[in-house]
Amino acid sequence: MSKIEHEQATAGFQNVQLNFAAHLRAPDEIAPPATIEPRRMHIYRDLIYNNIESFIAGGFPILRSIYTDERWYAMVRDFVHQHSSKTPYFLQISEEFLHYLQRERRLLDTDPPFLLELAHYEWVELALDVSDAEFPAGLTTSGDVLEMSPVVSPLLWSLSYQYPVHRLGPSFQPQSPPPAPTFLLVYRNRTLDVGFMEVNAATARLLQLAQEGSMNGRQLLQCLAAEIQHPEPTALENFGRELFEKLLGLNILAGLKPV
User: Fold this and answer.
1) 182 Cβ contact partners less than 8 Å away, ≥ 6 residues apart
2) Cα 146 to Cα 245: distance, rounded to the nearest angstrom
3) pLDDT score at 29
4) What is the pLDDT of residues 150-167, one digit of tens each?
5) DSSP of the chain
6) pLDDT tens digit string along 165-179?
7) What gap in Å lies between CA 170 and CA 185, rounded to an integer?
8) How confident is the model at residue 34 (pLDDT cuts 50, 70, 90)?
9) Lowest mean pLDDT segment, chosen from 16-20, 131-135, 243-247, 254-258
10) DSSP assignment of 163-176, as one string?
11) Do residues 100 and 79 make contact, with C-beta atoms less than 8 angstroms apart?
12) 202-231 in b/e burial notation, b at 16+ Cβ within 10 A?
């Protein structure tokens, strides 16, 4: 085979590949390659779509539960059609689907108003489950939480949402957000279990302060008391000791270190 013939054959094969992929992404709009048997093409279509749909449904179970079959399948079809994934790994399909919802999907009147927040929350649980982050070495879990510096776990995500995403489901779908935002700590503990804890704005801020510097527990509480103008700093300190110990027991705090 001459060089020209080889280049022509390669270009022809690439055109078939592109047509094949385009048909799988939009089977109702683009005809399949004429060189592929219809029965085989049907198998490919079902295999690709069913695998993708299964991974997305498994990664977003609450979101799936509030959509009818018709609306859900239409959304997944649109994702397959519109979204150009940046990764070949099935484990990252959930992140690609989240990007599609956030950046590409034209929200419909039938979509719940909390769609993006719920999708993000469900993705965070999966992201933490597969994260390769590790607890830092050289910390202790014993000692005075007020005299030592609390270290926030690298497997903690401190999040805030307009909607109470951890309570959403088929029987609870508010159409407008409540007056106050929802603050959640989503974390993975040392036994690899992912959990969440609803907190208030002050606790979320306390953990943010702990991530920013190397103050001990008492200094962190004093800083928080000044920020929120707490009328009884001593009472806040007593509450703070119990809170730090609870967070330490949940592995939200990875441990303690000397200041």
Assistant:
1) 160, 161, 162, 163, 164, 165, 166, 198
2) 10
3) 62
4) 999 999 999 999 999 999
5) --HHHHHHHHHHHHHHHHHHHHHHH-TTTSPPPTTS-HHHHHHHHHHHHHHHHHHHHHH-HHHHHTS-HHHHHHHHHHHHHH---S---GGGHHHHHHHHHHHT----TTS-TTHHHHHHHHHHHHHHHH----PPSS-BS-S-TTTSEEEE-TTEEEEEESS-GGG-BTTB--SS--SS-EEEEEEE-TTS-EEEEEE-HHHHHHHHHHHH----HHHHHHHHHHHHT-S-HHHHHHHHHHHHHHHHHTTSEEEEE--
6) 999 999 999 999 999
7) 23
8) low
9) 16-20
10) S-GGG-BTTB--SS
11) yes
12) bbbbbbebbeeeebbbbbbbbbbbeeeebe
Model-level pTM? 0.83
Q: How far is CA 27 from the centre of its chain?
A: 30
CA distance 257 to 42: 60
Buried b (16+ CB within 10 A) or exposed e, 169-182: eeeeeeeeeeeeeb
Q: How far apart are CA 238 and CA 184, in angstroms?
A: 23
Nearest in space to 152 (alpha carbons), one of 81, 217, 198, 68: 217
Is residue 95 within 8 A of residue 55, CB to CB? The reply is no
Please state, rounded to an integer, the average pLDDT across all residues of the chain: 87
